[in-house]
Design brief:
The chain is mainly alpha-helical. It has 9 helices and 3 strands, in the order βαβααβαααααα. Helix 4 packs parallel to helix 6. The longest helix has 17 residues.
Length: 153
Amino acid sequence: MKILFLIRYLPKFTYHATAIRALLQRGHEVVLLEDRDKGEGLPHGAFDACSREFPNLKSVALLKRADVYRNALFGLRELISYGSYLSRSDQSRYYAQRWRSYLPIWARLFADSPAGLKGLKNPRFMRALRFLERKTPNDRAIVEKVKEINPDL
């Protein structure tokens, strides 16, 4: 089975190495889709060692959205993630604050407002945000790239 695995960038490979190695050992082909801009110049020895051991492991550059939806969708997804941290009763405040720091400025201003904070804790509001995310058209270039890779999963 050919598995497409999205990874932030190759230096973070060690965070996922156990799961990826298990897939590779079972004979699956794993294609890592990674942001080469983020990891440029950083060492990625763990990935290099694993790819020497398993020829069925490959890395492909991530395509980023290049359309009018890119910035809004990025902020929307970060708001959805931040809201999920706010709604977890067993979650340390540290993780919510850390995720807040990932928000673009417009999303942070919204999240810091009383109405925004109330909305992000409201399941109905969060469903509306996820609905907007789902209704955003796919980027054609990214769809073509995934078709080119042709993963089973």
